[in-house]
Amino acid sequence: MDDLLRIDDGLSEEQRLIRDTVKTFVADRILPHVGDWFEEAVFPARELGPVLGSLGVLGMHLEGYGCAGLDAVSYGVACRELEAGDSGLRSFVSVQGSLAMFPIWKYGSAEQKEEWLPRMAAGEAIGCFGLTEPDHGSDPANMRTHAKQDASGDWILNGAKMWITNGSIADVAVVWAQTEDGIRGFVVPTDTPGFSAPEIHKKMSLRASVTSSLYFDDVRLPASAVLPGVRGLKGPLSCLSEARFGILWGVVGAARACLEAAVGYATTRVQFGKPIGGFQLTQEKLAWMYVGLGQSQLTALHLGRLKDAGTLTPQQVSFGKLANVRAALDIARRSRAILGGNGITLEYPVIRHMTNLESVLTYEGTEEIHLLTLGRALTGLDAFH
């Protein structure tokens, strides 16, 4: 499908190389199998982790410790091509780099960085991020998971987290908990006694992704387990901003994959004596879908350049996540309609992307949270309380 707006012409040579490399990987290693993974509700993380590490996409926007140290637009382009394969694939990379590696890189001790970041960048160790709780999703300030130091100086961690990507396959969890000094982050090896992570089953979305609960039953951690560089909600919220940036790029890939499937189908499916793409109602759908895709691509590229300039704000990230996910979901739904009955089969990518995007709409901040974030930015009035 032609890029009528020539948006990728604005990418550097290195960024186009990253695009093509990740796109080839997805075509060769993901697309032939992801329909089966989705149907069977599996994701071969241990097999793919080292391959993704060798591609340099794990923590690729971080400096040092084996990370590629690339710019934000390059990271965004990689997320776009990964999610054109499947949202679960991009989620794995996003959680690894932006939610597990980023807080260790930004707020961790030298020892924590040396212990975990090189192995995580190589895909040899898998991380997860424990913030959302069964009763506190959009309101993390009131989380119940708590940690308390005993007389020995060790931390005792108790509580539960839910909807945790990579949870039951992770080697390390970055867990946020209430303490006497406010919310703190902890680096928790998952083989620590008292830690458990049962997988969540019977999902109808993000099936090619591991989603788990985390339980902490008197998990004893040394004093060195706490992230020393941050206190309060600033820590987890900064991680969410990193992850949301990857999402606002990634969903462009899912939308593009759906539109490409719809265009291909519309130009070959014959009804009433001609391809259905020759009917005005179908062309109207396709045209509006392309407009939405182009606007999303431009938003992502603009926000990527702001991030590279060091001026990107959380409110701007909320704008991008809100607008681009909604546009991608609309494109997926219209594509499903164009494909008719074939749109619900895994022979085409559309229904898989469509159901995945229902989760992406919710995680890393619901649509309502981002609307209220923008409302507060516009009015100066806080509607969260």
UniProtKB/TrEMBL annotation:
Residues 231-378 form the Acyl-CoA dehydrogenase/oxidase C-terminal domain. It comes from the Bacteria. Keywords: FAD, Flavoprotein, Oxidoreductase, Transit peptide. Residues 12-124 form the Acyl-CoA dehydrogenase/oxidase N-terminal domain. GO terms for molecular function: fatty-acyl-CoA binding; flavin adenine dinucleotide binding; glutaryl-CoA dehydrogenase activity. Residues 128-219 form the Acyl-CoA oxidase/dehydrogenase middle domain. Its cofactor is FAD. Pfam families: Acyl-CoA_dh_1 (PF00441), Acyl-CoA_dh_M (PF02770), Acyl-CoA_dh_N (PF02771). InterPro entries: Acyl-CoA_Oxase/DH_mid-dom, Acyl-CoA_Oxase/DH_mid-dom_sf, AcylCo_DH-like_C, AcylCo_DH/oxidase_C, AcylCoA_DH/ox_N, AcylCoA_DH/ox_N_sf, AcylCoA_DH/oxidase_NM_dom_sf, Glutaryl-CoA_DH_mitochondrial. GO terms for biological process: fatty acid beta-oxidation using acyl-CoA dehydrogenase; fatty-acyl-CoA biosynthetic process. Gene3D superfamilies: Acyl-CoA dehydrogenase/oxidase, N-terminal domain (1.10.540.10), Butyryl-CoA Dehydrogenase, subunit A, domain 2 (2.40.110.10), Butyryl-CoA Dehydrogenase, subunit A, domain 3 (1.20.140.10). Belongs to the acyl-CoA dehydrogenase family. This is Acyl-CoA dehydrogenase domain protein. It comes from Streptosporangium roseum (strain ATCC 12428 / DSM 43021 / JCM 3005 / KCTC 9067 / NCIMB 10171 / NRRL 2505 / NI 9100).
